[in-house]
Every structure is written in C-alpha cells, then in structure tokens.
Amino acid sequence: METSDIQEYFPFWDKLDNGQKLKLYRAADFRKTKKKTLLHGNDSCLGLVLVKSGQLRIFSYSEEGREFTLYRLFERDICLFSASCMMHDLQMDLMIETEKDSEYWVINADVYKALMDESAPIANYTNSLMASRFTTVMWLLNEIMFKSMDKRVSAFLVEETRIEDSMKLKITHEQIANHLGTAREVVTRTLQYLQGEGAISLSRGTIDITDIDKLEELSE
User: Fold this and answer.
1) What pTM was estimated for this model as a whole?
2) Closest CA to 29 of 81, 82, 91, 94
3) Any idea which architecture 148-219 has in CATH?
4) Which of 77, 120, 127, 204 pairs as cysteine with 73 (C-beta 3.0–4.6 A)?
C-alpha cells in the first residue's frame, strides 16, 4: 500500500504512538497527477500536500491579475497553505499546480489539525515549517520591491539550471513572466539584454545558458 511509505517523510514519526500513526495513515490519500494540472484553488481546502516525487508550484495573483510564484515543492516537501482552513484567521488566495508528473499524498486537514493539537512533536514541526514558508514569502516580497528585473531574471535562470540540471531550458517568456509576476514584454526585453551580455542564447521555446558564471554575476 502506497501509504506505508509516508512514515519516511515525517521527522516526528517515531515520536507518535500507534494510534496517532494509524490516524495519519488513514488520513493520507495517495495520488498521481500529470503535469500542468491545477490541484487547488482559493475556493476549497484541499488538505496538506506531501510530495513523494515530481514538482509543484505554489502561486498567487497580483492586483493586475498576473501570476507570481511564491515557492515550489519537491520530493519530501509539504504544503500547509493548501490546508489553510485548519489555521484560524489565515486567508490566503493560493493556487497549486503540478509542473511535472507528480506523486503525492493529500492529508485530511481536520485529522492533521486534531493530531497537531494533541502531539507536541507534530505541532513543533508544523510551526517550524510555517515559519520557514513565511520567511520565503517575505524574501520574495523583498526581491519584488527592491531588486531590478535583470537581477531577478538572472537569478531565476540560475535556479532553473539547478532544478533541471541542464544548461538548456525549455521555458517560454510567458512562463518566466508568470513565475516573476511581471509582463511577458518585460521578460523579453530582459532576456535580450542578457543575450547581449553573452550570458544566454535565445531560440523559440528554449534558453541556452552560455555563461553561467556571467549569469550568476548579473544576478548578484
């Protein structure tokens, strides 16, 4: 049964009693989803998402209706904001989509909240994770407010090469704009500037990183 693997993904597992472990087992629904699938919108409480494999994107919208990525989820990552209904007074309009074919568990929010209320190890882990996510969001806001677009695009491309483990990125200008919360035209101008600097080479639907050191320098 796929759920039996779940114990490997929670650092607090050995501190739970048998009853708590059983509740967590039964609350976990294992799913497989193709890439580019919207898992969660702001009109529902999906539950906690725990990633076994693949890649998910957590994003929201600006007042102008533009997408911007808050953070991504990889293997062993967990998303609490997809279960924001279990956190009183937390109103967040977030969307979750799969960027790659993904396998993950969805854990019932009510069950997890009940376990968190009775288990200090679960509560400590959850609070630590929440603090880490908010730190990431605050860092993103700082980037948006104070960092120039050429630095943000450069940093994004450097991150993409690490995620994909490739210097050839299959990504469009529109996709980059959606990650960074800006207009496609702004991204296009910035990429042309980076190409002029010799850091990248542009072709349809593809960006070749020709000088990663230069790109890292431009991102700083």
Assistant:
1) 0.78
2) 82
3) Orthogonal Bundle (1.10)
4) 77
